[in-house]
């Protein structure tokens, strides 16, 4: 059972127990309940591999595969190709990006943003170009992310890693639980340290 579902279950239990006032759950009681939650190592490994693959950390994914025995759900060689496209878009090398995208997926009609970017090639003075904003670094980063997501989707892979979504669900669940109880919260997600409840 995931930590998210644990928090949801606690929320339901507390709603039944307390109609008007907040229940206080001690650190000892909370940790005991957390220890009862069983998360399979295999599931955690899949979550880590999903993050590494989706975000394009090919070397880390290869090492993690060797160390954990977790097989990625995509050929790791495609990560390198996908990251080359992303880098070409970020650096403004439109022709190279289009060539690499065509190598990965010869259908093209891949992404409207990339097609708009191609129109920059028609203008000698891009400051007068109607789509000149595409040269802005923030737009390049946005386009690179969209191209990355489109490539992942075309390869039948999720376009977003699961881990950030799970962390958002944890934050949402804690916010819901805050209305009903005082309990040890995780405020710093990077360390996952429980902080004593404030009464």
From TrEMBL:
Stored PROSITE patterns: CTLH (PS50897), LISH (PS50896)
Residue ranges constituting the CTLH domain according to the UniProt record: 78-107
SMART domains assigned to the protein according to its UniProt record, in alphabetical order: CRA, LisH
Pfam families the UniProt entry points to: CTLH (PF10607), LisH (PF08513)
InterPro entries: CRA_dom, CTLH/CRA, CTLH_C, LisH, Ubq-SigPath_Reg
Residues of the signal peptide: none
Name listed for the protein in its UniProt record: CTLH domain-containing protein
Source organism of the structure: Gossypium raimondii
